[in-house]
Design goal:
The protein is an alpha+beta fold. It folds into two domains: 30 residues; 107 residues, Immunoglobulins (Immunoglobulin-like, Sandwich), CATH 2.60.40. Helices cover 29% and strands 32% of the residues. The protein has three helices and seven strands, in the order H-H-H-E-E-E-E-E-E-E. A four-stranded antiparallel β-sheet has the order 4-3-6-7. The longest helix is centred in the first third of the chain and has 24 residues. It is elongated, with a radius of gyration of 24 Å.
């Protein structure tokens, strides 16, 4: 049996409709999480965030994040007294908001805080650190691979 142009066009159209239908179905099954549920309130306070980032850029040395096997090490610069630093650490998992964590920034006297990452899922994480030192607010954000 020989296929003429009419049958060829019909087969191509049927395959195209099947492909688009599959694509629409799979797209509707993907879970899309917002980064924040209260994004509007955060947008209003965004100038404060800009100020925190400017303060961090003005530092000679900023907080350092070191990823090692099984743990994340946060190093406070030497010229800051660890006991005067307060803040929080947020660990965001971009592909699953159920895994997000929020921790208090508590450096030891040597200016280090170690976070165990063995319980965290493998993949990309975004670390956001909001911290204050002597009534000045700072911000550090970095993406890491665990």
């Amino acid at each position: 049996m020989k296929i003429n142009w009419g049958w060829g066009i019909l087969i191509v159209l049927i395959l195209f409709v099947a492909f688009i239908s599959t694509l629409v179905y799979k797209s509707s099954q993907v879970n899309i999480d917002l980064v924040s549920e209260n994004y509007y309130e955060k947008e209003i306070k965004y100038q404060e965030q800009i100020d925190r980032e400017k303060n961090s850029l003005s530092l000679d040395k900023d907080i350092q994040l070191i990823v090692n096997r099984g743990f994340l090490e946060i190093l406070i610069p030497e010229n800051f007294a660890p006991e005067e630093i307060s803040g929080n650490i947020q660990l965001f998992k971009p592909d699953d908001s159920n895994l997000d964590l929020s921790l208090e920034l508590r450096a030891d006297p040597s200016g280090r805080q170690i976070i165990n990452t063995q319980a965290l899922n493998r993949g990309w994480w975004e670390i956001k650190i909001n911290w204050s030192y002597r009534n000045t607010d700072y911000f550090k954000s970095e993406k890491i691979l665990i």
